[in-house]
Amino acid sequence: MRRSSLTAAGVALAVAAYGTLDAFDMVPGVLTIDHDPSAPAIARTVQPSDSAAGGAGGSGSSPGSSPSAVAPQPPVVDPSAAALPAARTSGVTTAGLARALGGPLADPALGPSVGLAVRTGAGGAVYGKGEGVEHTPASSLKLLTASVVVDTLGADTRLPTTVVRSAPAAGTGGATATPTLTLVAGGDTLLGTGASAPGRIAGHAGLQTLADQVAKALGTTKRVTLAVDTSLAAGPDYAPTWDPAFLAEGIVGKVAPIGLGTDLVAVGTPGVSDPVDRASEAFVAALARRGVTVIGEVRRATAPAGATTVGSVESAPVADQLAVALQRSDNALTEALARLAYRRVTPAPGRATSFAEVATWVRGRLAAQGYDLADARMADVCGLSPGSRVSARLLADALVRGSTGASPGLARVVADLPVAGLSGTLAERFVSGGSVAAAGVARAKTGTLTGVSSLAGTVVTADGELLVYALLADQVPSATGTLAARSALDDVVATLARCGCRG
User: Fold this and answer.
1) Which residues does 182 contact at the CB level (< 8 Å), separation at least 6?
2) Nearest 5°: phi and psi at 223?
3) Under a CB-based contact definition with an 8 Å cutoff, are residues 467 and 120 in contact?
4) Is the Cβ–Cβ distance between 88 and 492 less than 8 Å?
5) Mind spelling out the 3-state secondary structure of 151-171?
6) Closest to 337 in 3D by CA, of 352, 324, 351
7) Which ranges in 243-391 belong to alpha helices (H)?
8) What burial class does residue 384 get, using C-beta atoms within 10 Å of its C-beta: 0-12 exposed, 13-18 middle, 19+ buried?
9) From residue 157, how far is each of 88, 149, 335, 420 by CA, in Å?
10) Is residue 171 part of a domain?
């Protein structure tokens, strides 16, 4: 049965309902976070900021606001409740696709360097144009990183943030000595400042809940010193290949193994100078609300062996954290999760891990997963650095691992990609003209750099068939620019949505 088309009234309602979600996707890295309204109401929600916004790596406005101020938002797609359509025998033909796509792919706004790979939902190759040629992927590179992170850490793994109490040192007064607490970072950079909120991703683990546990364990002790242990995934917080201006512009934030969900960058708002300090300051304030005073400066130190755990909170599952990273196209969050995954399998506590080292590891893991990397290069794992080159074929191969369920974790990631015309970086795309054909039925990871535009995801055709696609254009003419290239990309995907393409 052919899928019924969206009516103009239906699209108008969707635009009205989600028009406040602000997906700008205008500058390098591009990012908005919103929920997929196509899913049924569920407990899991993504609420890292109080509004959605976009830009080269940043999220909504008011990044420092309290999680309690987050406005109600629609639920995120839960792939266990709303899976992608089941793969079936394909009726789409290469000849049919070639006829349908010839015009859209010839749009001069795409420029002369275009790569497109189209697969059936079961993984069969049905169309390609320059699909094996390496192109600059921009943020669509994050799909490959997500494949490695979710398979390494596990989709349901939760990241702990722990506090331990050290035994008093000899000669310091024994039981009467001021105890030292150590806040041990476990990779959660979406901590909340208030109580843990199980219905959220950002703020799922709350520092106030952690402080409540610690205060109870301390009993009558009301004065402590505090250290922060970031040794699990230590490393530089800013890649040398990133323009220093990107931080001030809100394109990318600092990379750290602990941080606040409200500090995710927003385009036009500078990223915080030190996520670790921000998290420790919030924890000090949470302790103070329970009558516990931190004496002196908070220092950086490794938790001593034998220390006693006095409190612990856990993040939302890794797959949900990846959903935030991909919906927002958040560069720092993607890098932080990849660094953590690397250090989980190659532990080296306290040793600084470079961005290039993580990128090399991710590429190696992709090869071990069976991907044909050919001449693929990764300058970082988020797509912001110059020098990354991957093919449309490689991105399509990753998406097929999700669409077919070959990687259950990646299937969850693909199901959480932004939805055309409704959520994330696609909230304000596919809402007018011919591109409306893909509204609500296409999902994609976007990518934007100067001269580069990309889309990679899934789409359901007019005949109800699931297709996987990866589309890269990395010589976008400056005369027409990003907006025209984006429109041209959307037309290609809308053509797939309209197409029976059977002969």
Assistant:
1) 163, 164, 166, 226, 227, 228, 229, 301, 303, 304, 307
2) -130, 130
3) yes
4) no
5) HHHCCCCCCEEEEEEECCCCC
6) 324
7) 245-248, 275-288, 318-328, 331-345, 355-368
8) buried
9) 32, 11, 17, 29
10) yes
Q: Are 32 and 328 in contact (CB under 8 A)?
A: yes
Number of structural domains the chain divides into: 1
Q: What CA–CA distances, in Å, run from 424 to 5, 247, 329, 361, 483?
A: 22, 21, 9, 29, 17
Residue 79 structure tokens: 């792939």
Residue 192 domain-assigned (yes or no): yes
Is pTM beyond 0.90 here?
Answer: no
Domain span at residue 209 reads 160-318
Give the separation between CA 392 and CA 417, rounded to whole angstroms: 17
pLDDT given at position 176: 62
- Chain centroid to Cα 198, Å, comes to 19
What is the Cα–Cα distance from 429 to 406, expressed in whole angstroms?
Answer: 30
CA dihedral 426, 244, 357, 183 (to 10 degrees): -90
Neighbours of 151 (CB within 10 A): 19
Angle at 352 (CA atoms; ends 350, 355), nearest 5 degrees: 145
Sign of CA dihedral 334, 340, 346, 352: positive
CA 243 to chain centre: 21
Residue 502's pLDDT is 80
Cβ atoms within 10 A of the Cβ of 392, count? Answer: 28
Across the range 224-237, mean pLDDT stands at: 96
Joined together, the tokens standing for residue 253 give 């934030």
Q: How many residues in the chain?
A: 503
In a domain, 271, yes or no: yes
Is the pLDDT assigned to residue 69 strictly greater than 80? no
Phi, psi of 103 (to 5 degrees): -65, -55
Distance CA 39, CA 468 (A): 20
- The pLDDT tens digits for 273-309 are 999 999 999 999 999 999 999 999 999 999 999 999 9
Residue 388 placed within a domain: no
Handedness of CA 410, 415, 421, 423 (dihedral sign): negative
Digit-coded pLDDT (tens) for 408-444: 999 999 999 999 999 999 999 999 999 999 999 999 9
